[in-house]
Amino acid sequence: MTNQALIDALRGADAVQFGEFELSHGGTSEYYVDKYLFETDPGCLELIAEAFADKLESDDKLGGVALGGVPLAAATSVEADVPYVIARKQRKDYGTANLVEGRLEEGEEVVVLEDIVTTGTSLVDAIEALRDAGATVERALVVVDRQEGGRENVEDADVEMEALVTAEELLADQD
After folding, report:
1. Which of 139, 169, 136 is CA-nearest to residue 154?
2. What are phi and psi of 158, to 5 degrees?
3. Average pLDDT over residues 3-23
4. pLDDT band at 44, cuts 50/70/90?
5. How many C-beta atoms surround the C-beta of residue 170 within 10 A?
6. Which spans in the chain are helix H?
């Protein structure tokens, strides 16, 4: 898959929108990438899963950041035939009260998947939760890097971040 194929799919799913939008970190933006539109579109999800799977080793385990990273991890898990765990944003008050759901062995290497990175806060929180649960995390794969400091924050957590598409690429040639 080329970056352009994914860009075309994201645009085709109307996941790239223009206007004035408030972002989760409190800032505003003139564009919005709607993860729910691309994560619920089978064509987009298939392209993303294939692209992520191409970047994995057969012994990798995936970590999906709740909520947006979970469908990405599930689809990639099936595509690459590797297991995954889910990193919650907060503990539930019932059941096991785990921050990490699924089978995770002490010292196991986990590649974290995330949908969109702006400041990187959610991704870094998930990395910390996975590490606290015993995982080794050195890599993160994301669909879109908004190029607003997230990569630097993730790298400050000693994790290499690779994006399938950057905001610059996604917004090129848009009026």
Report:
1. 139
2. 60, 40
3. 92
4. very high
5. 24
6. 3-12, 35-39, 42-53, 69-80, 121-132, 150-156, 167-171
Handedness of CA 110, 33, 29, 148 (dihedral sign): positive
Structure-derived torsion over alpha carbons of residues 148, 40, 78, 103, reported in degrees to the nearest 10: 70
Beta-carbon contacts of residue 58 (< 8 Å; ≥ 6 apart): 80, 81, 82
Assess contact for 160 and 139: CB atoms under 8 A: yes
> What pLDDT shows up at residue 102?
95
- Please answer whether residues 134 and 107 qualify as being in contact, where contact means their C-beta atoms are separated by less than 8 angstroms: yes
The vertex-46 CA angle with 143 and 158, nearest 5°, equals: 30
Q: Residue 21's beta-bridge partner residues?
A: 29
- Contact yes or no for 33/170 (Cβ under 8 A): yes
